[in-house]
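(Fold this chain)
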Amino acid sequence: MQPFEYARATDADQAVAVVTADPHTSFLAGGTTQLDLMKDGVLHPERLVDITGLPLGGITHTDSAVQVGALTTMEELAADPTVGERLPFVREALLLGASTQLRNMATIGGNLLQRARCRYFRDPTVGACNKRDPGSGCAAITGIHRMHAILGTSENCIALHASDVAVPFTALDATVHVQGADGTRSIPLTQFYLPPGDTPHVENVLQHGELITAVEIPFLPANARSHYLKVRDRVSYEFALTSAGAALVIENGVIQEAHVALGGVGTVPWRCWDAEDVLRGAQAGSAVFRAAAEAALEGARPLPGTAFKVELAKRTLVRTLEIVAGASS
């Protein structure tokens, strides 16, 4: 790891100003991914501004939403009783996302900003990576890519977005609140992430120096049911091969409201708008669940090593919807 300066922020305005003024300065929160990438020679900040002393933690509730401070840990959010009652698939995604040790360190803001788990991004010695070194190429396309994306990919990058909790957040139309040098703004999570296209190194719409301050998560209706299902190679903490987060409101057997997103398959957390259209107004059952899954994976672009994910993702979504519908009956 190269030498770097360390500064501890005592004020959000100051922290934003310091980072904005210097392209080689970054924020530091839990650091569970960032420090690893620095040790591996992927990230090279010259200065880190520690924001853990800022008043950006805590969970507050209104009648319609829960607001989560960016420095709230994964474990704190998972332990919130209102989240467990009103947004159970958020809690499930948090608990499946990391070990207890990591959940007690990793922050919600940091989780949303975690970098790609692609081995070519994380190890400069094994191959080229446009995300790490723009213009160098994507070794994953012709290399080992079993854990990579099949939705939202480009000829420049097939790296997967690995966050579990971003999946139900995306399904719920969560909003990210940020503070920057020009003030504050609110960004729907469905518009926050950017697919790789020709610029894989640009992963989201944040400007340098903008700081996530909170995430606002709308509550589901009281009669909604939800579930997060994660399929992985081993039960012990592992990244998803495929995952699905779904919430349904079913009345008299008819789906009135549907929120669906996939993980483990997209370069960004993947909102399944077409699947929701199939589900909404339909009679709940296996046939419509399969039709929704077909719609969700319509745009998949698998490579030889990821071809299995197409059918696996469909089955993951169907099973998730079956579990939710069973809980609603």
Q: What stands out?
A: The chain has a mean pLDDT of 96. The CA atoms of residues 127 and 139 lie 5 Å apart. DSSP finds 14 helices and twelve strands in the chain.
